[in-house]
Write a structure and sequence with these properties.
62% of the residues lie in helices and 0% in strands. With 104 residues, it is mainly α. The protein has one domain (2-102): Cytochrome c-like domain (Cytochrome Bc1 Complex, Chain D, domain 2, Orthogonal Bundle). The longest helix is centred in the N-terminal third of the chain and has 20 residues, at 2-21.
Length: 104
């Protein structure tokens, strides 16, 4: 029983730490967003075939950027996103997501 409680406490602690790591730094994200401007616009408003990203939920953005990084087909423009996402770290993704979420 003690062992089970110790495992449960460890899992809870790690889950809490993961949430902190995913918080993201808006200022760092702004600098990293510079490569996104050409397609998604300076204010994340989207343009032509590129979708609006401003104000999207941070968790959604972290998830979709992770999918792009993994080379998954997310939508019709996935192949265009793969090269941009493939070198992003988890921290980079969290930062960019935090910045994009702050745009609206």
């Amino acid at each position: 029983m003690k062992r089970l409680m110790l495992v449960a406490a460890s899992v809870a602690m790690l889950a809490g730490m993961a949430g902190v790591a995913q918080a993201g730094d808006v200022v760092a994200g702004q600098a990293k967003y510079a490569t996104c401007v050409g397609c998604h616009g300076a204010a994340g408003q989207g343009q032509a075939i590129f979708p609006k990203v401003a104000g999207k939920d941070t968790e959604y953005l972290v998830g979709v950027l992770g999918q792009y990084r993994a080379g998954e087909q997310v939508g019709p423009n996935a192949a265009m996103m793969w090269p941009h996402a493939m070198n992003l770290s988890d921290e980079d993704i969290a930062d960019v997501a935090a910045y994009i979420n702050s745009l609206e």
